[in-house]
Design goal:
Keywords: Membrane, Transmembrane, Transmembrane helix. With 239 residues, the protein is an alpha+beta fold. The chain has eight helices and five strands, in the order ααβαβαβββαααα. A five-stranded antiparallel β-sheet has the order 1-5-4-3-2.
């Protein structure tokens, strides 16, 4: 006689059918879901609502030191890569579920409600929806911040180089000088004069420099642009 194999799913269903507390279990599960949804909603509201700069309570023994950053560290990468460091309420992108989960985990570990979230991201992410490597922090107080989550794509490998001219006025002038010199080198001087002495070269270079500087200044004033050091914590769009 061949014995019939046991179907574990049917066996599990049979065990559940004999349990008179099944309705209570379903109600308990429903309550767990409702509590979790309420927790998620509260966190989302804390991220979106306006909060003043304040510190959160943390158990220092549970904090991971590699996730703690001083404001100067954050400022440096914002200046180098032309990023913003603003309250999360100004962020127009979507906060991923992974970030919400990490906030829940932190609140559970430290038995504390977290507020005062900050985000590091390119300026456009505070205007349009996009995905370029945002970083989320929560304030610890005394100009220290605790890293929570990173999402999106990594920044372009040349972004730091491309943003270097916009760090300050000296960098911008150096960039304009170099570009003017290179432009002068590739420009045929014979188009402007029949003589080819060094004087004509430097005269053309001076003209290129003035023209390039005028274009840069016009663009900067017309667009309301500013240097990285001035905008990294600015919430105004025209910077």
């Amino acid at each position: 006689m061949k014995l019939k194999k046991t179907n574990l799913k049917k066996a599990l269903n049979y065990a559940r059918s004999k349990d008179s507390t099944t309705p209570d279990i379903l109600e308990a599960v429903q309550r767990i879901f409702e509590i979790d949804q309420a927790h998620t909603k509260r966190i989302e509201e804390n991220i979106q609502k306006s909060t003043t700069e304040s510190s959160n309570w943390f158990n220092s023994d549970l904090l991971e030191s590699e996730n703690i950053y001083h404001i100067e560290h954050i400022k440096q990468i914002c200046i180098d890569y032309r990023l913003r460091f603003l309250d999360s309420k100004y962020f127009k992108g979507d906060i991923p579920p992974e970030a919400i989960s990490k906030i829940k985990q932190l609140e559970k570990q430290h038995n504390s409600e977290l507020t005062g979230f900050k985000i590091v991201a390119p300026s456009k992410l505070f205007k349009l929806k996009d995905k370029d490597d945002p970083l989320m922090f929560v304030t610890l107080g005394n100009d220290y911040y605790y890293f929570i989550h990173k999402w999106g794509n990594d920044l372009h490998p040349l972004r730091k180089v491309l943003m270097w001219p916009f760090k300050n006025v000296v960098n911008l002038l150096i960039t304009v000088l170099v570009l003017s010199f290179l432009t002068t080198l590739i420009t045929p001087i014979q188009l402007f004069t029949k003589t080819t002495t060094g004087y004509e070269f430097w005269l053309l270079f001076f003209f290129m420099f003035k023209w390039s500087l005028a274009v840069v200044l016009f663009y900067g004033f017309a667009k309301g642009k500013n240097f990285n050091q001035a905008i990294w914590k600015s919430r105004f769009l025209n910077t």
